[in-house]
Amino acid sequence: PHHHQHQQQQQQTKQDQAKWIAADAKNGFIRVYRRDAPQLSAVSSAAAVVRASSVVACTTETTAVRLCQQLSVHSNALHMETPDGRIRRLDPFECPLALQNSMLAELGYSEARRVQKLGPAIDIGFCVAKFYAGRPVSCRTFARHNLQGLLEVRSGGGGLLAKWEKRLCECGPTAVTVYKGTDRLAGDHTSVLLARGSCQTVRGGKGGREHCLQIRGIGRSGEKELLLAFKDDVVMERWRKHIEKSTSQQDQTADLSESQLETVPEQLFALTQLRSLNLKRNCLFTKAMAESHQVRVKLGYLEDLHRFRHLTVLNLSANRLTELPSSLCFLKSLVELNIATNQIAAIPSEISGLTKLEILHAHNNRLASLPDSMSALTHLSMLVLAFNHFLEVPPVLAAMSRWCENIVMPGNRISSISERLADRLKPIRRINFRMNQISLNGTSSMKLDRFQHLAYLDLRDNLIESLDLGDLALLEFFCCERNRLAELKLNGRSLKSVLLEDNRLASLDIEPQPEYLEYLDASHNRLTQLPAYLGELKRLVHCRLSHNFLTELPPGLFLDGRQLKALIAGHNAIHSLPDEIRDCGIEELQLQHNWLSRLPDAVFSGLPRLRLLNLTRNRLTSLPRPEGGQTSADPIEFNSRLQELSLSFNHLDNSALRVLASFHRLRVLRLAFNQITELTDEFIRSLSFLQELNVSGNQLRQLPASLLMMERLIVLKAHSNMLQELPNFREMPELRMLDLGCNQLLTGSVRDLMEARLSFLDLSCNDKMGISMQDLTTVTTKSTIKTVSSAGGIQSLSLQRPPAAAAGAVAVAHRPAAAALPFHAGLAESTGSRNRMCISVLNKMPYPTPDSGLFAVFDGGRNSTVPGLLQRLFGRAYWEQLKAGLGEQAALRYALLAIHRRLLGHGRRLGASGVILCLKRRSADRWEATVANCGNAEALLVQRDRPMRLSRLFTAQCDRDEAERVVQVGGMVTEDGRVNGSCDCTRQLGCAYLHPCVVPEPQVTQVNLTETDDSLILASRSFWSFVSYDEAAEEVREAEQPVAAAKRLIDLAQVVYDIIL
Questions:
Q1: Lower Cβ count inside 10 Å, N or C end of the chain?
Q2: Would you place residue 1057 in the very low, low, confident or very high pLDDT band (cuts 50, 70, 90)?
Q3: 3 state DSSP class of 185
């Protein structure tokens, strides 16, 4: 009866909510949690959430004050917790429902009615916001930085706690707080500041308490002593270490960052000699803000900080400040001030009072100008103004240029510098205009030639087409990546670093010869030749020239007397290397995807320090013999440092193996897709240090028994051969990955393989191999067997599935010439060692109806939790959207948004990229492909004449519009291309703590498939990072079977990894 009554109540509640929503588009709901609600985790049940909260009907015009009246709480009690763990008190006239709707719109919910219905949902509190009727008793940030527990407490000096009493105690980064009762709701409390204090263990003699801590610190009225009693040593030791960390700090330093403060603790002002104060990531009030929120304290407003007269370092970043109190400008001793990541629109003119200020961090605010009074800051040497709203360089910087020689203004809206201002800025030595709106061509100029003292110039991510810096003789560092440069002139007299990646340069014009050049990156341009003097630069250490149209390299690069360590020249049209290679110091040489048909005789002996050599996808038919043997019969004795060698996709035969046997230190050897027919015992015995061996795509009929002697071997790939029998891999204790797929002649039982210590086993497309569940019932293993039937369907046999950890995943949907099913699907994965990626794959065909199929790849980067959850959640979420009557495009979109919410706490700080493909039959001979992607997992449609991208690469470096969106919502893009320094994707599933900078809204594309469409490729970031769209399309066209095509793509991609040591 009670269950039936509960169901009736739920049904009535849903009906009432539906009526409220239908009555007005402004109506909706928010879920309000009790202030003493327990901290809910990802595994909390729905019932626990319901018990700790209530659903409140309101409108988008209902203010926080009005809601407090509805809830019968104090008018300033409503608080909001955002996914990054920060809690703030709502302004009296803020409208909570409007805030919630705005955040849902930022996620990607564009339909007003759908947004209304989401209000009562339990999961939106994990990815949007939680509202509390009062300041929450506990929160995630508190748990990370504090200890809490019910302890027996006594005051050492008598008074309030003259006898032992059980109280709620908290230990923060600077103080121990004892509440009046057993919870924080009691309100009144006693705090002891730990700076200048002490902590010691007291055993016995204290009322029979065996485990006690004696704490001395500063209370409201002076020195205070507390005794805390614990049940056991373990808890006491944890508190002791936490307290001693605080008491060991000098009384000149206080760190109150991420403490959810609205005011500065009154006890802190007892530290009159305080030198450094960190208040980062709080919600500190000025007096005016406190009055509007009805918060009153005697001491602790921002204006009161001027009492710290000896303060030299003050950090107020990330406090949602809209202004900088002028009273702070009376801190005469201040040397460093950080007000970054606030909402400050103007700096007060009184800042001139900070006469000793040397460093001012004011980035990520709303500044559009600077006061002229800043010219009085004669000690200021570093001023950071990145990611503000400047339209021009502030004129006051000209007056400061004699002592402040840096202009750090990336992420603003600067388009030019006036000629008059350029003349006044001549003393400037460093300029950073990254991510502005500079557009220079042959008819426009920025007057940069006026900066004769300039040594550092960063112009990345602008719209520059032409640039003449031939007069800047002192320029040492120049960066102009990701522009539209077709013409560039540089003065090489002082140059040390030049970064020109991703432009349109056909030649390098640097005069005079850059004798001091150490780093050159001209990759992804249109270079057809290099300056001859490049081989004469003795100080050049790192040279990147990949993805150009080069046919040769300067001979001098391979001679002695050079400091060159890394030469990256893959993806060009290089047909030969210089014949003379002599005692060269190169350690990393990458020449993949070129036209090399032979190597110079001295390529190995002349590169004695070489550790990594990549020659994948060339035209090599043989390898030169290292020095030591004059004839082919002589033994080869060669001391080489080479540890990683990639020779896949060439035309090498068995003769190459004898040469390779001389490289005894090899850890990684890739020989996939050559013409090798046999692995000799001599070859196997010589490579005892080998950890990864790839001999896939050759003509091998067997793997020799001597292979078992490779005791260090971890990865063995031998797919796409003609193998007929296998050695006993149980005798290889370190082997973890074994890929034997696409060996159609392979026979035998899989039992022995399952009993090996593998964590990844691929036997796909081995139809003659006996796989019987009866044989496996007594086997205990962690391996996963992937099998592919002749019809192309993928199955998995697993007795205990391990976490999905892979370095790359590629799924290929391939249109067969004639088959019962209209498409065949193939999957290939590759485990990683140091560069480990965590991938999960969804492959359902038919699904969810007989005339459709669903495929997905989720890439978690370095976490396997989120991809695994997404794999389990997506199918059901997609089916729910289809049942609601949505088409494929809308269903994919809202299914992705739904699983983003359903990640709950798992997706707060972790995230994953995803690409999903839905194939749907529209008529007897017409199929439709719908693709949705989020992050850096992508999809490619391979047509007979060209490839067609069906996805969008959501990274800040590659998508200028997305980078601009991040800046507009208050975020930053750091120099390494990461959003707020954390995530390289601007859209991802999960990573809720970066909202609204990182959102899950996907790109959705729908195309009608025609007879000219051959294949569809879904792949993770680790694949697209190394293989271009054209290269992927070319490889797929050569393969008839989709599984073989996917494996071929994986082998093509997995050739540029860190050396495995």
A1: N
A2: very low
A3: helix
Closest CA to 1026 of 617, 536, 645, 725: 617
- Are residues 42 and 186 part of one domain? no
Domain hosting residue 119, numbered range: 19-133
pLDDT value, residue 206: 57
Please list, in sequence order, all residues whose beta carbon lies within 8 angstroms of the beta carbon of residue 932, skipping any fewer than 6 positions away: 889, 892, 893, 896, 914, 915, 916, 1002, 1003, 1004, 1005
Q: How many Cβ atoms from other residues are within 10 Å of residue 99's Cβ?
A: 18
Tokens of 203: 């055993």
Residue bearing the bigger pLDDT, 199 or 808: 199
Residue 873 CA to residue 842 CA, distance in Å, equals 10
Each residue's pLDDT tens digit, 929-942: 999 999 999 999 99
**DSSP 3-state percent helix, strand, coil across the chain (nearest 5):** 25, 25, 55
On the 0-12 / 13-18 / 19+ scale of CB atoms within 10 A, 162 is exposed
The closest of 161, 177, 304, 173 to 244, measured between CA atoms, is 173
Cα(first)–Cα(last) distance of the chain, in Å?
67
Amino acid identity for residue 32 in this structure:
V
Whether 374 contacts 347, CB under 8 Å: yes
What's the token pair of residue 137?
A: 């008793």
Sorting pLDDT into bands at 50, 70 and 90, what band is 264? very high
For residue range 285-319, list pLDDT tens digits in order.
999 999 988 888 889 999 999 999 999 999 999 99
For residues 504 and 830, the model is more confident at 504
Predicted pLDDT of residue 762:
84
String of DSSP letters for 948-1001: EE-S---BTTT-HHHHHHHHHTT--B-TTS-BTTTBSBSB-EE-GGGTTTSB-P
Give tens-digit pLDDT for 740-751.
Answer: 888 877 776 666
Cα-trace Rg, the chain = 33
Q: Would you call 114 helix, strand, or coil by DSSP?
A: helix
**Does the pLDDT at position 789 exceed 50?**
no
DSSP secondary structure string for all residues of 326-393: GGGGG-TT--EEE--SS------GGGGG-TT--EEE--SS------GGGGG-TT--EEE--SS--SS-
Any idea what the CATH number is for the domain that residue 41 is in?
3.10.20.90
What whole-number distance in Å separates Cα of residue 810 and Cα of residue 1046?
6
Which SS3 state, helix, strand or coil, does residue 468 take? strand
Q: How confident is the model at residue 804 (pLDDT cuts 50, 70, 90)?
A: very low
Percent pLDDT > 70 in the chain is 87
Total count of domains within the chain? 5
- CATH code, domain with 373: 3.80.10.10
DSSP 271-329: -TT--EEE--S--PPPHHHHHHTT---SS-SGGGGGG-TT--EEE--SS--SS--GGGG
Helix (H) or strand (E) segment spanning residue 754: helix 751-754
Measured in residues, the chain has a length of 1061
């200021």: which residue's tokens? 380
Per-residue three-class SS string for 825-891: EEEEEECCCCCCCCEEEEEECCCCCCCEEEEEEEECCCCCHHHHHHHHHHHHHHHHHHHCCCCHHHH
Instruction: Measure the CA–CA gap between 801 and 785, rounded to whole angstroms.
Output: 10
Same domain, 208 and 314: no
**Do 36 and 116 reside in the same domain of the chain?**
yes
Task: State the pLDDT at residue 797.
Answer: 39
CATH number of the structural domain spanning residue 885: 3.60.40.10
Answer whether residue 812 shows pLDDT above 70.
no
> Whole-number mean pLDDT of the chain?
86
